[in-house]
Amino acid sequence: VSEALESLAFLRERNASLFRRSVAAFLRERRHDAAVCETARDSSGGSHEFIDVVQTGSATCRYFVDLDFRAQFEIARPTRRFSEALAAVPGVFVGGAEELKRTVSTACDAARRCFRSRGLPVPPWRKNRFMQNKWFGPCHRTTRDTSMGFNGGVSCRVVGFENVVSEAGSGSSSGVVVRTR
Q1: Sign of dihedral through CA atoms 163, 165, 168, 174?
Q2: In angstroms, rounded to a whole number, what is the distance separating the alpha carbons of residues 104 and 175?
Q3: Which pLDDT belongs to residue 95?
Q4: Torsional sign, CA 29, 23, 4, 56
Q5: CA-based, 20 to 30 A from 179: which of 58, 146, 162, 168?
């Protein structure tokens, strides 16, 4: 993952989704079963994307790769104590399910203490259960590469008018009519 982050750093600020898909493609090129997973969090259509790596062998292991992990826990007006706890959360998470559950639980507990110390209720989207669903809820796993692979190759698509080609009737002189809309 570190090697992918280094070689694809130019994509990070431009397009987060493309960056994630490119890192997954980079990992697949190195023979890892990596895919981008998108979990639907709520009925309003919110979702979260991360990279899922499955290692098969004598035992199947699932690894989670979240390229913007720390940002999931940032809050407005944090206390000094919460800022210190957040600094301990990795910016990029790579690890197994148990490690992810522990890290999320610890970060959510620190956020809860921060909100309570300010006399505020904990918003539902900051609670441990909601945050855990970002990674452990039902997800759609996809390995398709969109417009760019890890090697920087660009897949072109036609942008602009849709062409409609049809054969002209017997009274037409050219035989083919191209209509653009």
Answers
A1: positive
A2: 66
A3: 95
A4: negative
A5: 146
Burial class (CB in 10 A: 0-12, 13-18, 19+), 36: buried
Compute the residue count for the chain: 181
In Å, how far from its chain's centre is CA 169? 51
Q: What is the pLDDT of residues 113-169, one digit of tens each?
A: 999 999 999 999 899 999 999 999 888 888 875 444 434 333 333 333 333 433 444
Q: What is the 3-state secondary structure (H, E, C) of the chain?
A: CHHHHHHCHHHHCCCHHHHHHHHHHHHHHCCCEEEEEEEECCCCCCEEEEEEEEECCCCCEEEEEECCCHHHHCCCCCCHHHHHHHHCCCCCEEEEHHHHHHHHHHHHHHHHHHHHHCCCCCCHHHCHHHHHHHHHCCEEEECCCCCECCCCCECCCCCCCCEEEEECCCCCCCCEEEEEC
| Residue 69 predicted with pLDDT over 50 | yes
- Beta strand 163-167 with 176-180 is antiparallel
- The model's pTM is 0.73
State the amino acid at position 168 in one-letter form.
A
- The rounded distance, in Å, linking the Cα atoms of 181 and 82 is 56
